[in-house]
Amino acid sequence: MTELSPKNAHARGEQAQRINRILSLAGITSRRKADDWIRSGRVMVNGRLLNEPGTRAIWGIDRICVDGQEIPKPSARLYLLLNKPFGYMSSLSDPQGRPLVTDLLKDILQRVYPVGRLDFDTLGLLFFTNDGEWAHRMTHPRFQVPRTYKVTVPGIINDESVALLRKGVQLPDGSTVRSKTSVITRSARQSILRMTITEGKSRQVRRMVEAVGHSVVHLIRTGFGKITLGDLKVGEYRHLETVEVEAMKRLVGMV
Ligand code: URA
Question: CB-based burial of residue 175 (10 Å sphere; 0-12 exposed, 13-18 middle, 19+ buried)?
Answer without folding.
Answer: exposed
